[in-house]
Amino acid sequence: MKIVVGLSGGVDSAVAALLLKREGHEVVGLFMKNWEDDDDGEYCSTRQDLVDAVSVADRVGIEVEAVNFAAEYRERVFASFLAEYRAGRTPNPDVLCNAEIKFRAFLDHAMALGAERIATGHYARVEETGGAYRLLKGADPGKDQSYFLHRLTQAQLSRSMFPVGHLRKSRVREIAREAGLPNHAKKDSTGICFIGERPFREFLSRYLPREPGPVVTPGGERLGEHQGLMYYTLGQRQGLGIGGRRGGDGAAWYVAAKELATNTLVVVQGHDDPRLFSSRLRAQDASWVSGSPPGGGEPLGAKTRYRQADAPCRFAADGEKAFTLEFGEPQWAVTPGQSAVLYRGEECLGGGVIA
């Protein structure tokens, strides 16, 4: 087949391209540039990533094309990212980035190039049975990325391949090293999808005004001043600016609530304060891999944040695009704006945005 691989400059997509080439496919690399604001190289590594992607393509023996999706990213992902922060929530841009850019804009571009499939370096698997596609966890439990892919549709999955999804990360690096790929030891990227690693508060303040306000205990005692609710998330411990204020047993402070109406940040002491736990959540803007939600009676697991173990829960649909989850064990720091993702064993069923 003709397969267009999203080459990011990282080792995972490099090995994905290598494996497909070895299988005899006609492989073309595509490097996506999706961010242009202040892309000066200090935090955004686009130029180095492109150099790495071209070096990989040369070693693997494939052509590579660079394409700019900055307008699509700003319109479909970044605008929503800012709106969520403005509303006091903590969004997960990687989820939207996958659904709108990597598996929509990129997919459309690849199909226009005559590709039959696209491939990425995600740690996930796709299984087809009787014309229906299932999204499965990656074989490496420490690297599984199905959480970020839960909004993919049947149409998107039918044209997507994840060549490293059945491998452990250590094996991927081993394959890259054995093949002489120049980025075999390159560290994994973190930070905001396509924007890179940069001081988060400074970055966000360029787009949203700072609105300082009080930091208080649940009883109303004022402990200090926050820099703007958008900079904090539920369960946050670092960067609260009240480290010297110790009461009770001297335990650390954690963000327990953000009260938009009064621009107040509420903090509690101790990781195990009951106000940090939730037994129930409601999610909206639901998306299901199969096209329809799971049944209400079967035992399922859910993640309310990436890298969390699946938590047993009871699912109930709440209208067409919303649902509720009830957990047997209360969950820590369930955060509005993050994704609640449902699993049936190894299968990722879909999910929604925690409201």
Protein architecture, described:
By secondary structure, the chain is of the alpha/beta class. The protein folds into three domains: 2-200, HUPs (Rossmann fold, 3-Layer(aba) Sandwich); 209-271, Roll (SH3 type barrels); 275-354, Elongation Factor Tu (Ef-tu), domain 3 (Beta Barrel). It contains seven helices and 17 strands. It has helices at residues 11-22, 46-60, 70-86, 93-112, 154-157, 169-178, 200-205; strands at 2-6, 26-33, 63-68, 117-119, 124-129, 132-137, 160-161, 213-216, 222-226, 253-259, 264-269, 277-288, 300-303, 311-317, 323-332, 339-344, 347-354. Helix 1 (11-22) packs parallel to helix 2, helix 1 packs across helix 6 (169-178) and helix 3 (70-86) runs antiparallel to helix 4 (93-112). The relative contact order is 0.13. The mean pLDDT is 91.
> At the first level of CATH, what is the class of the largest domain?
Alpha Beta
Given helix and strand content, the structural type is: alpha/beta
* Averaged pLDDT: 91
Oligomeric nature of the chains: single chain
Q: What is the H level of CATH, i.e. the homologous superfamily of the largest domain?
A: HUPs
Shape: globular
Structural domain count: 3
Named CATH topology of the largest domain: Rossmann fold
CATH architecture of the largest domain: 3-Layer(aba) Sandwich
How many strands appear in the DSSP assignment?
A: 17
